[in-house]
């Protein structure tokens, strides 16, 4: 009988939470294996296309729940490969939110002052820069001009983009083939590989159990690289430390499926899910009014008709991120380019009796897609999402070869959440319908429910064992040696793009994980410098290929 495979640290997922943990623990001397359920694509494999089988369907995971659908990354690099690279820090008041539990949601040990040095550390690694008005897309410029016209302020966003490499192709959501977007493929992950970490794509973790010596055994399936429903093999790896970073839609499912093997999970596992209060509105612009009211011109006789050009979201309006406002009345508004596909389906036609997301009028506005402007709301929701019993395998029952599945999340928005959406919808309408600039309607919830690209809080940190699955060190309560460092650990909606905060929390968690690893017999140290990107994604993938081939 062959000996079981063992490693010091097993990391599940390779997004911000997983990549940061893998780098620091490998650089500190631990043996690290990373299991990632999606494929590992090189920069040149990111397609400017959304046909089936292109990178766009291979690297996304779209899971439809009951009342809420989640869109996330499904590839090495996770959400950092498919995000728009907007990287604001969370507002200071967010850390004092009380939410539905009626008391401070965040642990007493964490506030904005505590987290700022960890934000700084992440910024060294990516890096992050403040965009200026020269970086603004036509869509961003129009949004800024409309805000000014209605009495709001608007500002370029901080972003993890190398402006010298960026070609303004606006395909960054499908992965950046020019290495201009600072995904984790360019920094933490190749640096982790350079320090000996092994990254295994197309490995979907199923559950965790205990070994006789008090360590953990992680069971996984390997899946086909074309049809993710096809299981090619299965196996287990034993580890002294497990770091879960599979995302807020998958980490709680793994823990729930592990309960028969590990014993009871904390009550908050799979509860208090937040969709970051997200909401989308589409404005169908009147090109003549854009010219006459806002005075905009591209110099070629057109005023706008160009939101497919640029970097994605470049301009946001943060006037309603006001700590003096009551909770559930605060939100941010961000200009967003959403490529043809899901957005085209869910956008509603103005001035049409419901249902307005299909029909003759919808067909007419689709013809004018170049005159669309999409505004993205991030508001304060009520953490009302709950995960039901897990599916037999994975995080969802896959419906197609790639991308689409049905998951166990149930989300019924409360009056608090609906209040935030109502106020933000009204403000978008006020700004963009002023003086006839456009007609505005939110995306429909009739097709896939509400939707989020920033799922959070399904295994959150906190001080109260009843309402938080993790302590303030990100360790699962009652299961020493299992840590969670992805978006599921964030206590609630952040009102801004959350990637920077997820990464900062992961950085903050590493010293505690190192201490726990040392207590469990791992010879590991903390103190590696920020990865400088000197090892490229191509270098890392070649090294991994050589290792798997025995070279």
TrEMBL record:
<keyword id="KW-0443">Lipid metabolism</keyword>
<dbReference type="Pfam" id="PF01266">
    <property type="entry name" value="DAO"/>
</dbReference>
<dbReference type="InterPro" id="IPR007867">
    <property type="entry name" value="GMC_OxRtase_C"/>
</dbReference>
<feature type="domain" description="Glucose-methanol-choline oxidoreductase C-terminal">
    <location>
        <begin position="452"/>
        <end position="506"/>
    </location>
</feature>
<keyword id="KW-0274">FAD</keyword>
<comment type="pathway">
    <text>Steroid metabolism; cholesterol degradation.</text>
</comment>
<protein>
    <recommendedName>
        <fullName>Cholesterol oxidase</fullName>
        <ecNumber>1.1.3.6</ecNumber>
        <ecNumber>5.3.3.1</ecNumber>
    </recommendedName>
</protein>
<dbReference type="InterPro" id="IPR052542">
    <property type="entry name" value="Cholesterol_Oxidase"/>
</dbReference>
<dbReference type="InterPro" id="IPR036188">
    <property type="entry name" value="FAD/NAD-bd_sf"/>
</dbReference>
<dbReference type="InterPro" id="IPR006076">
    <property type="entry name" value="FAD-dep_OxRdtase"/>
</dbReference>
<keyword id="KW-0285">Flavoprotein</keyword>
<keyword id="KW-0560">Oxidoreductase</keyword>
<keyword id="KW-1207">Sterol metabolism</keyword>
<keyword id="KW-0753">Steroid metabolism</keyword>
<keyword id="KW-0413">Isomerase</keyword>
<dbReference type="Pfam" id="PF00732">
    <property type="entry name" value="GMC_oxred_N"/>
</dbReference>
<feature type="domain" description="FAD dependent oxidoreductase">
    <location>
        <begin position="8"/>
        <end position="41"/>
    </location>
</feature>
<dbReference type="Pfam" id="PF05199">
    <property type="entry name" value="GMC_oxred_C"/>
</dbReference>
<feature type="domain" description="Glucose-methanol-choline oxidoreductase N-terminal">
    <location>
        <begin position="68"/>
        <end position="271"/>
    </location>
</feature>
<comment type="similarity">
    <text>Belongs to the GMC oxidoreductase family.</text>
</comment>
<keyword id="KW-0153">Cholesterol metabolism</keyword>
<dbReference type="InterPro" id="IPR000172">
    <property type="entry name" value="GMC_OxRdtase_N"/>
</dbReference>
<feature type="region of interest" description="Disordered">
    <location>
        <begin position="526"/>
        <end position="551"/>
    </location>
</feature>
């Amino acid at each position: 009988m062959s000996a079981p495979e063992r490693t010091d640290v097993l990391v599940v997922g390779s997004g911000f939470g997983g990549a940061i943990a893998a780098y620091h623990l490998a650089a500190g001397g631990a043996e690290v294996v990373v299991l990632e359920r999606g494929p590992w694509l090189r920069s040149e494999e990111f397609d400017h296309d959304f046909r089936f089988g292109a990178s766009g369907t291979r690297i996304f995971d779209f899971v439809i729940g009951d009342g809420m659908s989640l869109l996330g990354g499904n590839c090495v690099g996770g959400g950092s490969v498919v995000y728009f690279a907007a990287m604001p820090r969370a507002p200071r008041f967010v850390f004092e939110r009380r939410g539905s539990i009626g008391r401070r949601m965040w642990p007493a040990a964490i506030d904005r002052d505590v987290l700022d040095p960890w934000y700084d550390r992440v910024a060294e690694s990516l890096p992050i820069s403040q965009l200026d008005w020269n970086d603004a897309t036509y869509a961003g410029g129009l949004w800024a001009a409309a805000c000014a016209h209605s009495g709001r302020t608007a500002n370029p966003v901080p972003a993890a983009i190398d402006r010298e490499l960026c070609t303004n192709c606006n395909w960054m959501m499908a992965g950046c083939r020019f290495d201009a977007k600072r995904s984790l493929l360019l920094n933490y992950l190749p640096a982790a590989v350079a320090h000996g970490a092994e990254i295994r794509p197309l490995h979907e973790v199923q559950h965790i159990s205990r070994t006789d010596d008090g360590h953990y055994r992680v069971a996984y399936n390997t899946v086909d690289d074309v049809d993710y429903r096809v299981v090619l093999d299965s196996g287990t790896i034993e580890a002294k430390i497990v770091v879960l970073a599979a995302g807020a839609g998958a980490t709680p499912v793994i823990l729930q499926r592990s309960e028969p093997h590990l014993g009871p999970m904390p009550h908050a596992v799979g509860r208090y899910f937040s969709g970051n209060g997200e909401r989308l509105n589409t404005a169908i612009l009147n090109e003549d009014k854009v010219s006459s009211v806002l005075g905009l011109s591209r110099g070629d006789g057109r005023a706008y008709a160009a939101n497919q050009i640029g970097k994605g979201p470049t301009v946001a309006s943060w006037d309603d991120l006001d700590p003096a406002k009551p909770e559930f009345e605060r939100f941010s508004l961000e200009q967003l380019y959403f490529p043809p596909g899901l957005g085209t389906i869910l956008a509603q036609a103005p001035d049409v009796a419901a249902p307005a997301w299909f029909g003759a009028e919808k067909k007419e506005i689709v013809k004018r897609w170049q005159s669309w402007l999409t505004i993205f709301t991030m508001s304060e929701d009520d953490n009302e999402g709950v995960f039901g019993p897990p599916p037999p395998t994975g995080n969802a029952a896959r419906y197609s070869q790639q991308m689409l599945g049905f998951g166990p999340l149930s989300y019924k928005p409360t009056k608090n959440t609906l209040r935030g959406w109502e106020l933000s919808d009204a403000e978008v309408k006020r700004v963009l319908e002023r003086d006839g600039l456009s007609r505005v309607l939110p995306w429909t919830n009739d097709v896939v429910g509400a939707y989020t690209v920033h799922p959070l809080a399904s295994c959150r940190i906190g001080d109260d064992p009843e309402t938080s699955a993790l302590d303030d060190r990100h360790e699962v309560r009652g299961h020493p040696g299992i840590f969670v460092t992805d978006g599921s650990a964030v206590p609630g909606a952040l009102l801004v793009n959350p990637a920077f905060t997820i990464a900062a929390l992961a950085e903050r968690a590493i010293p505690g994980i190192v201490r726990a690893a040392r207590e469990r017999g791992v010879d590991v140290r903390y103190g590696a410098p920020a990865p400088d990107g000197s090892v490229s994604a191509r270098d890392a993938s070649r090294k991994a290929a050589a290792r798997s081939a025995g070279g």
